[in-house]
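Q: Hi! First time doing this. I have a protein sequence and I read that you can turn it into a structure. Is that right? Here it is:
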Amino acid sequence: MSETLEVSATGAAAEAIRTHVPVLVADGFAGRLFAKDATLWGPEAEEESAKRLSWVGLPRTSRHLVGEVSALRSELQEDGVDHVVLCGMGGSSLAPEVICASYGVELTVLDSSSPDQVRAALTDRLDRTVVVASSKSGSTVETDSQRRAFEQAFTDAGIDPAGRLVIVTDPGSPLDRQSREAGYRVVNADPDVGGRYSALTAFGLVPSGLAGADIGRLLDEAEAVSDLLADDDEANPGLRLGAAMAGTEPLRNKLVLVDQGSGLPGFADWAEQLIAESTGKQGTGVLPVVVPDDSAPEVALPPHDVTVAHLVGDEDGPDETAPGDHDGTGSDVSVTGPLGAQILLWEVATAAAGRILGINPFDQPDVESAKIAARSMLEGSPDSTPPAFTDGPVEVRALGGDWLGDAGTLPDAVAALLAQVDPQQGYVAVMAYLDRLEQAELADVRNTLAHRVRRPVTFGWGPRFLHSTGQFHKGGPAEGVYLQITADPTEDLAVPGKEYTFGRLIASQAAGDASVLADHGRPVLRLHLTDLGAGVAAVRAALQ
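A: Yes, that's right. Below is the predicted 3D structure, encoded as structure tokens:
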């Protein structure tokens, strides 16, 4: 992990820095951002921005949490409780995940409504488990359902849930009041910070600190670069990165994130949700594409609408000879720095990108539309659309236009979907509503598809990705085609106190998201696996 924060660029990204950073400096963007100036993104964004800017001061204002969390961890350890489970979605789960991975400490992240994945968490060392349930309001359906399941599991095991549940929420929220009345430990987060900017609030620090991460050091790293990032100077790395992301001309709106020795495992996944949810709206935005390594097609032979962001360490140094730049047509940016510094860096850069793009980086209108659609199906009738056809263990459905043609087999359906990909601007999104731990190897199809279509491919686990790239898919430009994979659970699981099950919940989320995508005119191929093992094998074969 590098101790120096640095951003360098070549090609179109470097030209974007030369064009836009002087304008941002002349406008006093950085200084105004750290002064919490809500007018930076225009009058339509002002109301939302006014209550979302406290993240700029978190390296200092979150200091009190270091001692509080340490004391709570010691208390729990004295009682033999040393296994931390986090129930949360989006930024509430992705930030602690990367923090704990970077510090080499164990944290079980439950950010799924898959019955199989929830059940696995419920049965893993329950006698030694403390659960952190994180939600700004408590209305996040996944987190509410997971919390209910753990409450029931603790009760059934003769364990008082009040001693094993820690609630992180906004002060005065319904969850805050309900949890205090129930006698739970409650830690309030700063209410003037949105979820994806909350890494350095209680949402990021409480679960990470309880798991054993050095959250004091994390805040030190962020505070050490705060003045640098607040400086209206052309060397400001936050302005440089924001311009590289959003200022290329024409806009290279696919940002490929590749880790090349940063020492920050999972950081690209956190950056993905920050950038996609912040920028993908009003028909524009930047689509982050997380790839496993530099052998990915998007890095080895980047398309013309791609900027490659290399996450590097000290030993690598900034990459001045990026592979896509050999002919002068590439666009690359290299970023190095410690975790706390990079969290604040990418938040500043995303805010700057929002100004360059002319959008509000603090709302997420299309995330809400998918939630509404899922809730409608959950409370009403489940999706009962018959399949267009069934090929062995896979039911095939096509939404978003009459593009399936006469396809009658799974490989033909996949070919029909991929034929809709625009060879100049298009991308493919794979959305798998499965147990992401048990089916982790399925993510390998991302590279397979990227080689096949020679266009950027994203892979997201549902419902996790709904709080990330899901916003861009619906609110960004109409460039994507969408492959959704669902399955019958091995065994369903009730949500205590509710009339629905986890199986019904994840099915409603998948159907709701597909419906909203189709309403936006996006082609969606839905593959439902009636036999998980055979179905996954069939899908893999069809994607070759």
